[in-house]
Structures are given as structure tokens and as C-alpha cells.
UniProtKB/TrEMBL annotation, chain A:
This is Peptidoglycan glycosyltransferase MrdB. One of its GO terms (biological process) is cell wall organization. NCBIfam families: rodA_shape. It is found in: Cell inner membrane; Membrane. It holds the Pfam family FTSW_RODA_SPOVE.
From TrEMBL, chain B:
It is a single-pass membrane protein. Its main location: membrane. Keywords: Carboxypeptidase, Cell inner membrane, Cell membrane, Cell shape, Cell wall biogenesis/degradation, Hydrolase, Membrane, Peptidoglycan synthesis, Protease, Transmembrane, Transmembrane helix. Residues 267-602 form the Penicillin-binding protein transpeptidase domain. This is Penicillin-binding protein 2. The chain crosses the membrane at residues 21-41. The lineage of its organism: Bacteria, Pseudomonadati, Pseudomonadota, Alphaproteobacteria, Acetobacterales. InterPro entries: Beta-lactam/transpept, Beta-lactam/transpept-like, PBP_dimer, PBP_dimer_sf, PCN-bd_Tpept, Penicillin-binding_protein_2. The keyword Isomerase does not apply. It is found in: Cell membrane; Membrane. Residues 66-235 form the Penicillin-binding protein dimerisation domain. GO terms for molecular function: penicillin binding; peptidoglycan L,D-transpeptidase activity; serine-type D-Ala-D-Ala carboxypeptidase activity. It holds the Pfam family Transpeptidase. The gene is mrdA.
């Protein structure tokens, strides 16, 4: 076994090195650099979107810096402590979702955020991470046999459906589906038998037509628009068409920094948030778009690498959940701006303007790093902390 | 040991399943990201050209540009119609979250009326969200500044600058210069210019007649616009041709003075009888032409169109009156031409003429005794002209009236001018009625079916004075180039023997200056020369036999039953320059009401036009430089 020796060595370091400094050295600095690069892309794009740094770019950099500190702090927290707090966190997430339904601020016909001091919090974003934590905690102790038990699977299914339902009620179809998919990814990775997995998936899919009936008109319109965007070029399909025009006119090399006509002449809606990728693709062309996509793909890949290298099921499942979360952000956003799926206000992580999204994203990365830093710890009997 | 081994095995199995599945999941995700990459390749590399064109379409907007409308100037270069900046507030619905709130905030700065709000809301419903809707036009500078300062509270409100028509002489020139108004739906199909927002079209008067010249030609400009249609910069421009200035013959000061002098129902026309130039044309009441440019309210329009005093109608060109005794020269000339009487032949006037069982009265009940032509004109003997008409026939009289510009199209640059009516036998028969000699007799003193405009009466007087077929006209120069018609030689002779005309002129001289003339009160102060004219008093109701026997006094009946007073004149007698016609509705007596007014008008005209040079391009050019 060639891999055994370094494995053992790492185990040893892990056992001995509980000191903060040791942990600090185990932080994957290359990954931190990668995150910095993605955030820098965001900085440049927001500079252009705001016609200068004042509007968005400066705030973006500041938030990233703040998020970085938060991320590194979380990275040093023992993963077992985090695992123990998982259910509490989940409960908090649910409580916030209920709160947002009761007292939330309405935006675009949905109740989505609550104000906490100067901060606008979108509980649905936080919920996705809390769900990953709770599911990972549930499956952590589960033996292979237990995972095969249908009764054992019922509570985690409920754990997914309850927040989904609450988010759907806001209503925010996109985030509800993403939440469900994160849950599905963890179920799948936890080793739930394939036929049971498909059974559950099929059951949920069976509810979909009923759910469609309960969709708000604007959501239905969104789906219908997606099917035929040119049908109403000045109405709901306008955004998709303008986004594709911006992308296409960027061509191979782009129009140059601050030179995008579509974006700068306001043909692009919400160019600093949902359509930031279009800005990048228009001004830096296919090359810039693919480079950005590649950076984001590397982030997703790293999440999976963390999962593979982790020695405990909790960390593995959490990493997969967090990685899937990032993947879904990226995929839904870029698929949306390229007109591949219906428009649904999903930001691009670390690039789009928005404080709440940045904080939840960095919180997720903090947890991921904690998994990485504590990849070799033993669960089971708690060892000295 | 075994237990631990089993545990380890179970753990390994769990790990292996995880690795397998997570790898599948991860690769699946990478595959999907790869799919996005291929989408980007397709859109950006393969279809890039198509989308580049679309992007260009998006940002380019070709727009027509309105050329500046030409000005209208008076004979001295005074501005009668010009363009003024028009500050407009427009609302782009897309740029505000709450239209009502924005409008309320705007209303606090510039109060909006109920009907304005209704119009704005209607426009908003009809237009796309990014098309600006006019909120208020003609903002004052202060209002504009206030709106700009409060811009943060007025999301979606933009200030836009257009141009509007201004008439410095306002009511005084409205009937001549006319006005402009937005084009009607049916106009829009013609010139692309008419589709432009804020464009105005000449609707009346000189504005309408010279509209093609004043309007100019539309230009085009290629603009880069943003998503809401706001112009970012200009890319390409093809200038239109600005409209040309039109100089008209009216003297603004004279026009203003006459309008100030006359009261409702009184109409005055002053012409240069040498070339037909109209110097002033006063009709009361008038209207404010700027109201039309701003868009007239229905209430205002209803008031103006239903008012008995008809402010929108220029009575000089559209008012129709029976000419009465001012027409007698036509009868006399027709008779001389038909040789039905010699100028010195006398007709005995006993105060009435009996014909076919009817008695036709002379205004002088005692009769004038034997009168020849000059005397008949001087004292306005009705019996003399009854007899002349009877001898000559209505068609000959009508033909003569037509030659003097009555009942025909005079071609003046005021669209809608009435020709008037000069009856003939054929005209009467076309109505299915016979023409009797009695009718002819009545028409011999300008009563009956005659319907003539004050303008045509002035034209007749000018033609009598000069013997030329001068036509009343307004245009002196267009775009700085003088137009034909300002020299006497431009007008052909009427072909009336000078001997006959001389008798008319002498008769008219005697009306004012002769002993026993009807209009001695119109005599001019010596320095202006002498005035020749003819009075007219026209019954608007038949005077019954009973009234006549009780001693009919026209001044004692209800105002609208009193006779109209008329006077036509020219001066100076020996070197005719100006011709005047005055109509005073229900003025009772031409001699007492109309003639003194004509005298004043002529004095005013002499004073104001003394030394006025013939039209020249120089003056227009000077006015432009100012």
C-alpha cells in the first residue's frame, strides 16, 4: 500500500497537533488563494458594472476580507464540535425561515430576507448549509445496515422537505429545488440504496405537477418564457434575450474592460448581481468566460477532494453537500444567463454583488476548511479536545 | 478483535461506496459545467456574429430630427412667429418603483391638474415601460430648476428640451399669421417629420399657407441609446434643412393700433393699392394663437367655436356682408360699359321708383331731383342706381364685380378665405328660382344676395384707384428672396377705360370733399392729401311700411336690428397709395360710423408707413442677424 505511509503520518500529526498553530498550517492556502482569485474576478466585474469601484467593487472587496477572517476562524473550530451543534443550527435555520415568513421583507413578490441590524439575511441561503450539516450529522453514525433501513431514512427525508416547503412558501422555487438537490446529493453519497433513492426521488417528482399548480404566476411565466423566450421580447423573455446578445456579442476576446455596450447601456438587467457573468463574458469574451468558469469548477473540485481525503463520514458528507451547493450556484446562474434554464435569481458565488450571499458562502467555505483541517480526527468516543 | 475487524470492514465498505458515488456525483457536476462551457462556445464563438449584429441593433437608434421652423416677420422685420425653448418633464415608468408616488412628488413642485393626471395615466398604459411619457410641457425656468434640484425624490422624471412656437404679437396677429398645432393622425403618413414628438404643423393663416417652406426638411441622426432609450452619444448625423423665414407685408404696429381701435364686430382692411400688399387686417375679437401649440383644452375649443362673437374667424377674409352703396361704382361701371347711360345723363329721383307694382325707396325720402352719375355717387342716390341696374342687367353687373375681385378667389395667403357671393341670373336659376327685374333693381344698390368680405371690398377700392388687377397678398419675401407682386407693373390693367374710372374717382372724391357729399366727416387734414371714398348703410332687416310711415329711426331699434355701416376709401386722391375698407356691424350709418374710422385708419397708415421702402431682402437679412 503505497498510500498507507503518508496516511499514517498525517494521522499522527492529526493526533498530536491540536495546537492552533498546527491547525493553521493545515489550512489549504492554495485554496484560499483560489478563492481570492475568484473574488478578484468579481472585483473587476463589479468595477465595470458600477462604472468605477465606488458603487460595488469596494464593498465587495471589504466583504470578502471580512468573510476571509470569518472563514479562517471557523476553519480552526473542531469539526466534532460543529457536528454536535449541527441539529441546533438546523433548528435555528428553520426558526429563521418561519420568521421570514412572518416578518420578512418582500422583494419581487416574495418574502426573502430579514434585517438584522445593518445585515440583510436570507435564511434560505443559510438553511442550505444547515441542512448539509444536519444530514451529515444524521448519517455520520449510521452503519451500512442502518442506511438500508427505510424507517431510518424517513427523518432525514423530513429534514429536507420541511425547509423546502417553507422556502417554497416564500415563494422561491429556485432555492427550494436547490435545497432539495443538496439533500439528494448527501443521500446519494451516504450510500442509500439506489432503488430507495430513486423511490424517494420519484415520490417527490410525483408531487411536482401539484406543486406547479401552487406556483405564483410569475414563476409559471418564468417556466413558460424559458420554453419560448422570443415570444415576448419585451416582457419576461427580455432578460434572457438581452443576456444572450451580450454574451454572443462578446465573441472570442470580448469588447474590453468597461467597453461592454449591452451592460453599460443598461440592456442587461441586474448586471451587478444575477447577470454579472454576462458582464464578464461580454467584456472579456469566451476566453474570460471559460477562465471564470474554470476557476469556479476548481472550487467545486476542491470540495470533492476535501471529501475524498476526509476520514470520517460527517466530513465527507458535509463536503459533498457544500460542494454541491457551490456547484448548483454556479450551474444555475450560468445556465440561466446562457438561456439554458428558466431565470431564477441565483447569484454567482464570490462574484455577484451582495453581502448576505457572500457571508453564507464564506461560512460554507469555513466549514469546508474545518473538515479539511480536521480530516483525520476520530469520531465515536470523543477524544480530548 | 473480530468485532473491530467487522467494524473496520463495514467502515471500509461505507468509504468505498462513498468514494464511488461522490466520484460519480463530482464527475457529473463537472460534466454539467463542461456543458455550460460548450453553451458558451456556441453562443460566443459560433453565433457571435449574429449576436453582435443584435447588440448593434440594440444600441443604435436612427431618429429623425426636426428642423427649426422658419420665422414669420412683418414688413419691417419685426418677429411675428418664432421658436422658443420648451422645457418638458417626461416620466420613464421603468425607472420608478411607484408611478403614483413620483407623480405626487412632482405635483408638490409643479401642481398637476386632474385632467393632466388622467392623460398621463392613459399614456402610461398605452406605451412601453421605457418610452418617456410627457408629464408637463412649457415648464418655466424656475419650475425646471426645482424639478432638477429635487431629482432624487423624482425617480423616473427627466427634463427634456423641445421647441415651441411663440407669437410675440399674440391676438393682434392671430388671424393673419395663424397658428400651429400637433399633426392629426392622417397627416402622420406623409412626411416622416410629422411623426416626430413635439412637431407642430401650420394650421391656419400664413403658418398654414407657407407651411412647406417654414417647415424645412427632416434630418436624421444615428444615436447610441441605452436600454431605456436614453441617448448616450451621437454617432452619425445628416442635418435637415431648416425652414425659411417668411416676411409678410403687414405692419405690426399698424395692425396693433387698428386692433386697439376697433370694437367687436368692426372689421378694417388696409391695402397698398399700388401692389395689393395687405398692411393690416383687424377683426375683433381674436384669440391667443399660442394656446394651440400647447394643445388646446376641449373647454377652450368649445368656448371659441360656439361663441357668438366667433373669435377664431377672421372677419376680414371670412365675414360676409352685403356691400350696400359701396357697390354702386360697380353698377355705374357696368352701365357705362354697356352704354346703358352716359355719364352726364340725368335720372330724376322723386324719392322712390315704382316698378311692377312695387315701390323702391330712396334713402332720401324727398328725392334728389335730377342727378347725373357723379352726383348720384356723391349723394348716394338709390333711385339713380335702381334705374341703372334695371337698364344694365344683373349679369353685366356681376361680371364687373368679378373683375374687381368680388365673388372670386383672391388668392390671399390665408387658407379658408371666402370668395363671397355675387349673384347672377344663372346662379338664381340653379337654385330653382326665377330672377325678376325687381331683384335686379334691389341689387343695384348693393343689397339683396350679395355676400362680400371686407377684403374684397378693399380690393375693389384698390382696383378702382389704380385701374390694375392688384390682388391682395401678404408675402413679401421667402428665405430672404423677394417674391413677385410688390411692384405696380407686376399687375395687369383691368381693361376699364380710364375715362370711366375717372368718373368713379371723381364721384368718390365728392362723397368726402364735395358740397353735400355723404361723408364730409372723413376729410383728411391737408398734409395727407385728399381722400376719396364711398359710404354704405345696409339694412339687416326689412323696414316695414308701417315703420317707415311712423318715421323709422335706425338708432332706436335693438342693436342687432340696426343697419351695418360700411365705408371704402383710398388716399391720396391724386396719387393713390392706400385703400381701406371698414365694416361696422350694426353701426347704423356708413357716413357717421365707418367713414370717420376709415379716416383715422388712413392717417395712422400714413404716419406709420411714411418712407417705407419697397420690400428688400436686406431688411430680412438684418433681422436675422439680430
Amino acid at each position: 500500500m503505497s498510500g498507507a505511509a503518508p496516511y499514517e503520518r498525517r494521522l499522527l500529526i492529526g493526533d498530536r497537533g491540536n495546537g492552533l498553530l498546527r491547525k493553521f498550517w493545515r489550512v489549504p492556502w492554495l485554496f484560499v488563494l483560489l478563492l481570492g482569485a475568484v473574488a478578484a474576478v468579481g472585483y473587476v466585474a463589479l468595477w465595470s458594472a458600477g462604472n468605477g469601484p465606488e458603487a460595488y467593487a469596494q464593498k465587495h472587496a471589504f466583504r470578502f476580507g471580512f468573510g476571509l477572517v470569518m472563514m479562517l476562524s471557523i476553519a480552526l473550530v473542531d469539526i466534532r464540535l460543529i457536528a454536535r451543534a449541527a441539529y441546533a443550527g438546523y433548528a435555528l435555520g428553520i426558526a429563521l425561515l418561519v420568521l421570514v415568513l412572518l416578518h420578512g421583507n418582500v422583494g419581487k413578490g416574495a418574502q426573502r430576507w430579514i434585517d438584522i441590524g445593518p445585515l440583510q439575511l436570507q435564511p434560505s441561503e443559510l438553511m442550505k448549509i444547515m441542512l448539509a450539516l444536519a444530514l451529515a450529522a444524521w448519517f455520520q453514525r449510521a452503519s451500512w445496515e442502518k442506511v438500508g433501513n427505510l424507517l431510518f431514512l424517513l427523518p432525514p427525508v423530513a429534514m429536507i422537505l420541511v425547509p423546502m416547503g417553507l422556502i417554497l412558501k416564500q415563494p422561491n422555487l429556485g432555492t427550494a429545488l436547490i435545497t432539495g438537490m443538496i439533500g439528494a446529493a448527501i443521500f446519494f453519497s451516504a450510500g442509500v440504496r439506489l432503488w430507495k433513492f430513486l423511490l424517494i426521488l420519484g415520490g417527490v417528482a410525483g408531487i411536482a405537477p401539484i406543486a406547479y399548480e401552487h406556483l405564483r404566476d410569475y414563476q409559471k411565466a418564468r417556466i413558460n418564457t424559458f420554453l419560448d423566450p422570443e415570444s415576448d421580447p419585451l416582457g419576461a423573455g427580455y432578460n434572457i434575450i438581452q443576456s444572450k446578445i451580450a454574451l454572443g456579442s462578446g465573441g472570442m476576446w470580448g469588447k474590453g474592460f468597461m467597453q461592454g455596450t449591452q451592460g453599460h447601456l443598461n440592456f442587461l438587467p441586474e448586471k451587478q448581481t444575477d447577470f454579472i457573468f454576462t458582464m464578464i463574458a461580454e467584456e472579456f469574451g469566451l476566453v474570460g468566460a471559460l477562465a471564470t468558469l474554470a476557476l469556479l469548477a476548481l472550487v467545486v473540485i476542491f470540495c470533492f477532494v476535501v471529501a475524498f481525503r476526509c476520514r470520517h463520514q460527517f466530513g465527507r458528507l458535509l463536503a459533498v453537500g457544500l460542494g454541491t451547493n457551490i456547484f448548483l450556484y454556479v450551474f444555475v446562474n450560468i445556465a440561466m444567463v446562457t438561456g439554458s434554464i428558466p431565470v431564477g435569481g441565483v447569484p454567482l458565488p464570490l462574484i455577484s454583488h451582495g453581502g448576505s450571499a457572500m457571508l453564507t458562502t464564506m461560512l460554507g467555505f469555513g466549514l469546508l476548511m474545518s473538515v479539511h483541517v480536521h480530516r483525520d480526527v476520530e469520531f465515536g468516543e470523543p477524544r480530548g479536545r | 478483535m473480530i468485532l473491530e475487524k467487522n467494524l473496520r470492514r463495514a467502515e471500509d465498505r461505507q468509504r468505498r461506496v462513498f468514494t464511488r458515488r461522490a466520484l460519480g456525483l463530482g464527475l457529473g457536476q463537472l460534466g454539467l459545467l463542461g456543458f455550460l462551457g460548450s453553451r458558451l462556445w456556441r453562443i460566443q464563438a459560433e453565433e457571435g456574429e449574429k449576436y453582435r449584429t443584435l447588440a448593434e441593433d440594440n444600441r443604435m437608434s436612427a431618429r429623425y430630427t426636426a428642423p427649426a421652423r422658419g420665422r414669420i416677420l412683418d414688413r419691417n422685420g419685426r418677429v411675428l412667429a418664432e421658436n422658443r425653448l420648451n422645457w418638458r418633464a417626461v416620466l420613464v415608468t421603468e425607472q420608478t418603483n411607484d408611478v403614483r408616488q413620483t407623480l405626487e412628488a412632482f405635483s408638490r413642485i409643479v401642481p398637476l391638474q386632474e385632467h393632466e393626471l388622467a392623460r398621463i395615466e392613459r399614456d402610461i398604459r398605452r406605451r412601453r415601460r421605457f418610452v418617456p411619457v410627457t408629464v408637463r410641457e412649457f415648464l418655466s425656468w424656475e419650475e425646471m430648476a426645482k424639478v432638477e434640484v429635487n431629482a432624487p425624490d423624482l425617480p423616473g422624471i427627466l427634463i427634456d428640451v423641445g421647441s415651441t412656437r411663440q407669437y410675440p404679437e399674440r391676438e393682434d396677429m392671430a388671424h393673419i399669421v395663424g397658428y400651429v398645432a400637433p399633426p392629426a393622425e392622417r397627416d402622420i403618413e406623409g412626411d416622416p417629420l410629422f411623426g416626430l414628438p413635439g412637431i407642430r404643423l401650420g394650421r391656419a393663416g400664413v403658418e398654414r399657407f407657407h407651411d412647406p417652406v417654414l417647415r424645412g426638411r427632416v434630418g436624421a441622426v444615428e444615436l447610441e441609446v441605452n436600454a431605456v432609450g436614453r441617448v448616450i452619444r451621437e454617432l452619425n448625423r445628416r442635418d435637415g434643412v431648416p425652414g425659411q423665414d417668411v416676411q409678410i407685408s403687414v405692419e405690426a404696429g399698424l395692425q396693433r393700433a387698428l386692433r386697439a381701435r376697433v370694437t367687436e364686430g368692426t372689421t378694417v382692411v388696409v391695402m397698398d393699392c399700388r401692389n395689393g400688399e395687405v398692411l393690416a387686417m383687424a377683426s375683433q375679437p381674436s384669440f391667443d394663437p399660442e394656446v394651440f401649440a400647447a394643445g388646446i383644452s376641449t373647454q377652450q375649443w368649445r368656448d371659441w367655436t360656439t361663441s357668438r362673437s366667433t373669435p377664431l374667424i377672421n372677419k376680414a377674409t371670412n365675414g360676409l356682408y352685403a356691400p350696400g352703396s359701396t357697390f354702386k361704382m360697380m353698377v355705374a361701371l357696368a352701365a357705362l360699359e354697356a352704354k346703358s347711360i352716359g355719364p352726364l345723363d340725368r335720372v330724376f329721383c322723386p324719392g322712390h321708383l315704382d316698378f311692377g307694382g312695387n315701390r323702391f325707396h330712396c334713402h332720401q325720402r324727398r328725392g334728389h331731383g335730377g342727378v347725373d352719375m357723379r352726383t348720384a355717387l356723391k349723394v348716394s342716390c338709390d333711385v339713380y342706381f335702381y334705374e341703372l341696374a334695371r337698364r344694365t342687367g344683373i349679369d353685366q353687373i356681376a361680371a364687373m364685380a368679378n373683375r374687381f375681385g368680388m365673388g372670386v378667389d383672391l388668392g390671399i395667403e390665408i387658407p379658408g378665405t371666402r370668395r363671397g357671393l355675387v349673384p347672377t341670373r344663372a346662379w338664381r336659376q340653379s337654385k330653382g328660382k326665377p330672377w325678376s327685374i325687381g331683384d335686379t333693381i334691389v341689387h343695384g344698390i348693393g343689397q339683396g344676395f350679395y355676400q362680400l368680405t371686407p377684403l374684397s371690398l378693399a380690393t375693389m377700392t384698390a382696383r378702382l384707384a389704380t385701374g390694375r388687377a392688384v390682388e391682395p397678398h401678404l408675402t413679401r419675401s421667402v428665405g430672404g428672396r423677394a417674391v413677385a407682386g410688390s411692384r405696380p407693373e407686376d399687375w395687369p390693367s383691368l381693361g376699364i377705360p380710364e375715362r370711366d374710372l375717372k368718373i368713379m374717382r371723381e364721384g368718390m372724391w365728392a362723397v368726402v370733399n364735395g358740397a353735400g357729399g355723404t361723408a364730409a366727416g372723413a376729410r383728411l387734414p391737408g398734409k395727407y392729401g385728399t381722400l376719396a371714398g364711398k359710404t354704405g348703410s345696409v339694412q339687416v332687416r326689412r323696414v316695414t311700411r308701417q315703420q317707415r310711415e311712423n318715421g323709422f329711426n335706425a338708432e332706436r331699434v335693438r342693436r342687432e336690428w340696426r343697419p351695418n355701416a360700411l365705408f371704402v376709401a383710398y388716399a391720396p386722391y391724386d396719387n393713390p397709395q392706400y385703400a381701406v375698407s371698414v365694416v361696422v356691424e350694426h353701426g347704423v350709418s356708413g357716413a357717421r360710423t365707418a367713414a370717420p374710422l376709415a379716416r383715422e385708419v388712413l392717417i395712422e397708415t400714413f404716419e406709420r408707413l411714411r418712407g417705407t421702402a419697397p420690400p428688400d431682402a436686406q431688411r430680412v437679412a438684418e433681422a436675422e442677424r439680430r
